[in-house]
Amino acid sequence: YILPSFYPQNLFILNFNMTNNNTAVPMKLSNLPLRPSTLSLLLRRGFTTTMDIEQSKQDGGISNFAAEVNFSIKDAFRIVREVEECQRRLLGDNGGDVNSSSSLQSKNKYGTTTTQSSNSMTAAAVLQNTSSSSAASSSDPRHIITFCRTIDSLLGGGFARSEVTELCGIPGIGKTQLGMQLCVDARLPRIYGGVEGEAVYIDTEGSFSPERCYTMAQALVKHVQASAARREQQRLMRQRQQQLTTTATAATTTKSLVPSWFNPNTILNGIHVFRVHDETSQTLTIKHLEQFIKGRQEDCLIQKERQKQQQHQEGQTGEMPIAPIKIVIIDSIAFHYRSSISGAD
Fold this sequence. Notes:
Elements: E1 13-14, H1 36-44, H2 50-69, H3 73-91, E2 103-107, E3 113-117, H4 123-137, H5 149-154, H6 175-185, E4 198-203, H7 210-238, H8 247-257, H9 264-269, E5 271-275, H10 279-287, H11 289-314, E6 325-331, H12 335-342
Parallel strand pairs: 4-5, 4-6
Antiparallel strand pairs: 1-3, 2-3
């Protein structure tokens, strides 16, 4: 959530027909403190002012606006609320009444009367809105853990989703290793604190190593199995007075605590690698990434419905679940663009 770099004295709102205090003031979307992703989406769809959004809603309601931005009605409502909230912050709760004490009038160098809003935001308010926006964007606030206590503590519990995290460092410091580790950790079952999702790895330098990734997956499975064994041993110790402790029971229960699909092969099956060889293929891959992620999510929903029917008829199945994409790794995002610029005349 990054506020645009503008100063209040540079934000001019022309007074067109301001005799009615309830008249909405058209504003450029680029002058609103919208999230970069929201602003980019609206501009790509041809919406440049708040009046464009209002006109779309008047033509056919929120469903018409949702169709124009190619979003669901729920997401379209979220975008409209975000635009209205940002506009309210700048104009004040009075809707931009130039006669109100919360608005300031002045004349610019062209002699045109302008309105400047005195309604500012504190840093604490920005932080609160950022936290609220992150919580609203995902019903599950879990981070993707790295199993490195120092890194997880530094990042507040791991790598946060719905955010962009950049890893910087000299060659050989371990950026690629950490990227592959995150892809593996994204497959961690939810009962062990994971997000139980899939990952996308965009490899621009040819540094992705499936052998190393498989080794990491083996280590993760062993760690989960050991954790399951400790849990079961603690449970059996609590039941020792009931004389329910047997080796066979312990082995069977420990095995059942680990999902049957969770093994190194299925972990790697949930990591989708895109090898790009130049800036053009990288740009196209990133452009079509949203479509791939949505398609994967639809496949996940279809499989869940099929599994519900199978479980009702045949009982629990051990089929590997199709999970939504939880993390996207680009290693590295600047490699091809940097090479293209350095090779230009």
